[in-house]
């Protein structure tokens, strides 16, 4: 099945693809020249999708999923994942009052905030990424998928597992992946929390960040990161993020503390998440 997912231009697909490529998990995701594909699970049914730019102002989705009734939910998730409904003109009008943001927006006028396919998956990946590099976190996630993921037969090369379900992760001893036992308990606890509250990662919840912070092992950075990419809170801002601190330091030519970054970000409300994405992307050398 092929579906066109329209958006209001501009859309910086190259930046979106670079973000996904840097975080692609073996067996779960594949980034090719110009496109992205991954396995998906929904209500116990498994399949795959691939997505790439169309000739018009749209992305073209190729979906291989046996339950046709799930297509509307899949499309809704993908529109959030690829930030297709962002009203960039209004976001930019507010951010350009800051000269730095004005300059970054001029360089990347179509930059969107990458989302996630699934809240549990993103939360697990965020916890695995605590205090280690992106590359190390991806290697750990790949081990988790290979050990606990559901095997998948797919015609798309490289997609051979679906991310494991909450009930399995809640019972598993995830510390055997090679991490502190406390972090393994956090992973299992997050999975159990989703079983207890199926709406835990539902976008639009006013108490979403507070519920995340109440979980064992979930601090402000992790909660804000999940809020940005899964809950789709446009003002979410992981202020202690080393990448954000380094980006601002490079752009402004001097050392920056996490507190200074947070104070500076007050001027970017209520779209601090888009400011964060501009800062992260500024570290790239892909232009």
Helical residue percent?
A: 40-55%
Please state the average pLDDT score. 94
Helix-strand makeup class: alpha+beta
DSSP strand count? 7
How large is the radius of gyration?
A: 19 Å
Estimate the strand proportion: 5-15%
* CA distance, first residue to last residue: 33 Å
Question: How many helices?
Answer: 13
Main sheet? 5 strands, antiparallel
SSE succession: EHEEEEHHHHHEEHHHHHHH
Strand arrangement within the widest β-sheet reads 1-5-4-3-2
Global morphology: globular
- Uncertain spans: none
Structure description:
With 287 residues, the protein is an alpha+beta fold. The protein contains 13 helices and seven strands. The strands form two sheets. The chain has a five-stranded antiparallel sheet with strand order 1-5-4-3-2, with helices on one face. A two-stranded antiparallel ribbon has the order 6-7. Strand 4 and strand 5 form a beta hairpin. Helix 5 crosses helix 6. The two termini are 33 Å apart.
């Amino acid at each position: 099945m092929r579906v066109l997912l329209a958006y209001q231009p501009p859309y910086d697909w190259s930046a979106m693809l670079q973000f996904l490529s840097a975080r692609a998990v073996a067996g779960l995701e594949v980034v090719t020249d110009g496109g992205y594909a991954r396995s998906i699970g929904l209500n116990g049914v498994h399949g795959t999708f691939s997505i790439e730019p169309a000739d018009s102002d749209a992305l073209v989705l190729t979906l291989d999923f046996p339950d046709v009734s799930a297509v509307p939910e899949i499309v809704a998730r993908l529109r959030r994942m690829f930030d297709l409904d962002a009203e960039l003109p209004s976001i930019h009008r507010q951010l350009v009052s800051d000269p730095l943001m004005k300059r970054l927006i001029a360089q990347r006028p179509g930059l969107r905030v990458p989302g996630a396919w699934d809240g549990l998956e993103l939360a697990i990946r965020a916890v695995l990424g605590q205090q280690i590099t992106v590359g190390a976190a991806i290697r750990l996630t790949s081990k988790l998928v290979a050990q606990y993921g559901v095997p998948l037969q797919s015609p798309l090369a490289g997609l051979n597992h679906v991310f494991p379900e909450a009930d399995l992760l809640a019972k598993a001893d995830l510390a055997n992946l090679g991490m502190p036992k406390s972090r393994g308990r956090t992973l299992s606890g997050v999975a159990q929390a989703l079983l207890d509250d199926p709406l835990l990662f539902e976008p639009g919840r006013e108490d979403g960040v507070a519920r995340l912070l109440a979980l064992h092992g979930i601090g402000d950075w992790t909660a804000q990161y999940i809020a940005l990419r899964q809950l789709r809170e446009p003002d979410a801002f992981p202020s202690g993020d080393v990448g954000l601190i380094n980006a601002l330091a490079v752009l402004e030519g001097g050392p920056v503390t996490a507190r200074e970054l947070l104070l500076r970000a007050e001027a970017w409300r209520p779209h601090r998440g888009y400011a964060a994405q501009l800062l992260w992307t500024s570290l790239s050398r892909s232009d």
